[in-house]
Write a structure and sequence with these properties.
alpha+beta; 13-stranded mixed beta sheet; two-stranded antiparallel sheet; 7 helices; 15 strands; 28% strand; globular; disordered C terminus
Length: 297
């Protein structure tokens, strides 16, 4: 069975929901039970790609028949895993925002990707933030503390002491080239690679858990009466989304046949994922790391 890395880059807020919530947020996003980290269900990605493919015969070969009967039922040739959180964009005092991840998230990604074996493991102390040292990180600032200057990164309401590490440089470079691959059709990706390396931060797992809970986007929505154009009583609700620039990763597994190139072709253009599509939610770019061939090449 051939496996291929996949990345999802959110170009607008992404609402991959679980239905009605029981807390303050009426429509929360999907989260893993054990880690509470957000994720995009593989079924959501599969369904959206299936809708994009107009060739009925090819669609049935790749995804299986739409309404299989007992005599002709068969499974598709491609399997999508859940797309797990890799980098969360978090508001920063300098540099506008930072792409934040943690040691646990990177180790889980390493498990999916054999190519990362040469990238060193990284642990982060509580209250610290590991950033790439080259090029200059745009989120760092110097502050006076106990009569000495120290570098800090301010994420949301957290002030974290900066720690530079060559492993962070390697991770930032590796991920930037995977998420924003160079190609003739994407000449600006080199600029985006630089942006990513300048904004890449690794925080402790505890800090990441806090940010994954508090740094998502929550908006209030309501329904208007068609005649009076005023809010319908009791029709106000709160909806949670992953913010624009969120990066998720997963695997594409080829069970039979050879259809990864077909998926690459479908994913060349941005696709809509998750709910609330009619209000601009869920516009995403899918990147398939297919041995140097990807959805943007």
């Amino acid at each position: 069975m051939k496996s291929t890395l996949t990345f999802i880059h959110a170009l607008s807020p992404l609402h991959a929901g679980t239905g009605q919530g029981v807390g303050v947020i009426d429509l929360p996003i999907a989260r893993e039970k054990a880690t509470n980290l957000p994720y995009l269900p593989g079924s959501t990605l599969k369904g959206s790609l299936r809708d994009e493919l107009k060739d009925d015969d090819l669609r049935n070969k790749i995804f299986g028949p739409d309404k299989p009967d007992n005599d002709s039922a068969y499974s598709g040739s491609i399997v999508f895993t859940d797309q797990k959180l890799l980098c969360l964009p978090v508001r920063s005092l300098l540099g506008t925002f930072a792409w934040v991840t943690s040691p646990y998230i990177l180790e889980r990604f390493r498990r999916d990707c054999k190519e990362t074996e040469n990238l060193g493991k990284k642990s982060v102390k509580q209250g610290f933030c590991v950033v790439s040292s080259n090029p200059k990180n745009e989120n760092k600032m110097k502050v006076k503390k106990l009569d000495r200057e120290i570098e800090q990164v301010i994420l949301e309401d957290l002030d974290l002491t900066v720690q530079t590490d060559s492993n962070a440089d390697d991770w930032a470079k590796f991920l930037a080239e995977k998420i924003f691959p160079n190609s003739e059709k994407s000449p600006t990706n080199e600029t985006w690679q630089t942006y990513f390396k300048q904004r890449f931060c690794i925080v402790s797992d505890d800090v990441m858990n806090f940010l994954a809970e508090t740094a998502t986007e929550v908006i209030a929505r309501n329904k208007l009466d068609d005649d009076t154009k005023t809010t319908v009583k009791g029709a106000l609700w709160y909806e949670e989304s992953l913010p624009t620039e969120t990066i998720l990763s997963g695997l594409l597994l080829q069970v039979k046949g050879n259809h990864i190139s077909d998926i690459v072709e479908i994913a060349k253009n941005p696709i809509q994922l998750g709910g609330s599509m009619t209000v601009g939610r869920g516009l995403c770019q899918m990147i398939i790391d297919n041995g140097g061939s990807n959805a943007n090449s």
